[in-house]
């Protein structure tokens, strides 16, 4: 069995464990998904011109197709995969946004070519995304459900029905959580961006 088949089998087994309620499986699955999404993002950066915004939903879908044998995975497992992948995409995108800021300032833990970060984000997109990530952490402290709904929807492209499936609740509850969280985020970020969002963070939030 080659490496790709071995990884696909491992992911499939972990997805089944996640479906059965194993939190340890979620922790084990996230690094596998993260590594795959990071590799896909790097490949996309090499192919795309500068200024092209990373298509997070497309990357999540591509990772799913590469990692999972769909003939052996139930719909619920697929939803859980996308939920875990959304968390990984959040980490990847924040890393790229921080890289762009560090490259722009000439600082950071390690040198990063400016064109590498620019290929993912324009300057306003990077600033907005970092601010959104910090606001989500604040929101999570008192509205965990809303923070997760935003993460799943914004970073992973999940539908209301898929999020409801993952969270074990109703679609209407997810919709209400989304609207509540979005309203709070708009108020929280209003002072930082009085003119409104213009970049990546404006999708569905503003």
Q: Number of folding domains?
A: 1
Structural class: mainly alpha
Number of strands: 0
Percent in helix:
over 70%
Alpha-carbon distance between the termini?
A: 48 Å
% residues in beta strands: under 5%
Mean pLDDT: 77
Q: Based on Cα principal axes, name the global outline.
A: globular
The run of helices and strands is HHHHHHHHH
Q: Outline the low-pLDDT stretches.
A: 108-119
Radius of gyration over all CA atoms, rounded: 17 Å
Q: Helical element count? A: 9
Largest sheet: none
List the helices and strands and how they pair.
Layout (H helix, E strand, L loop, with lengths): L2 H17 L3 H25 L8 H12 L7 H31 L8 H5 L4 H18 L3 H13 L3 H8 L3 H19 L17
How does this model look, in words?
Helices cover 72% and strands 0% of the residues. It is built from nine helices and no strands. Helix 1 crosses helix 2 (23-47), helix 1 (3-19) crosses helix 4 (75-105) and helix 4 (75-105) packs across helix 8. Residues 108-119 have low confidence and may be disordered. The protein has 206 residues and is mainly alpha-helical. The N and C termini lie far apart (48 Å). It has one domain.
Keyword list:
mainly alpha
Quick overview:
This protein has helices spanning 3-19, 23-47, 56-67, 75-105, 114-118, 123-140, 144-156, 160-167, 171-189.
